[in-house]
Every structure is written in structure tokens, then in C-alpha cells.
Specification:
About 45% of the residues lie in helices and about 10% in strands. The chain is mainly α and about 100 residues long.
């Protein structure tokens, strides 16, 4: 399994209504230094309907300004449709951060 496949496997496990950070996905995929690689992998996501890349936010809970599938507003809308709420443009990570299990 290559790096991108490992990243996509982790992102597929993020449940509806939860988010993960780039660093968290990197760590769960095998290397905590892959956060930027996670961003690139999600930007070229080959299966956006089955790999929910919109559930990945930065370490501050902010959505991506370069979200590849409709921009930041689309990412916010997709998360809000799952019940994730934003406060001042950020996800409350204490409430919505996925445990990784």
C-alpha cells in the first residue's frame, strides 16, 4: 500500500459529524511528518464520493481555503450538513475531533 492509499484509508474511517487534522491523519497513516503530504493527497483525491476529504481540517480547526471540491465554503457546508458547527470560522475541536478509533 502506498502513502496515498494509507492516507485515504484513514480518511475513510473518519465518521460522519467528526473531523480530523492533517497531522492526525498523517500520524494514523504511519508518519507524523506527512501532514503536507496528506494535504496534497486530499487535493488529488480520486474518489471524493467515498473518501470524505472535507472532514480534514488544519490544527486550528479551520477549513482549507484551497478545498479542491468547491472551495472553503463547500467544505463548510458539507461539514455543517453533518452537524459540525463552526465558531468564528473554526470547528470546535474539543467537540468534533475524531478520536482516531
Amino acid at each position: 500500500m502506498n502513502i496515498f492509499e494509507r492516507i485515504y484509508e484513514v480518511v475513510r474511517r473518519i465518521p460522519k459529524g467528526k473531523v480530523a487534522t492533517y497531522g492526525q491523519v498523517a500520524r494514523l497513516a504511519g508518519n507524523p511528518r506527512w501532514a503536507r503530504v496528506v494535504g496534497y493527497a486530499l487535493h488529488v483525491n480520486p474518489e471524493p464520493n467515498s473518501i470524505p476529504c472535507y472532514r480534514v481540517v488544519n490544527r486550528l480547526g479551520e477549513p482549507s481555503v484551497a478545498f479542491a471540491f468547491g472551495g472553503m465554503n463547500a467544505q463548510i457546508t458539507l461539514l455543517e450538513n453533518e452537524g459540525v458547527r463552526f465558531i468564528n470560522g473554526r470547528v470546535d475541536l474539543k467537540r468534533y475531533l475524531w478520536s482516531g478509533e
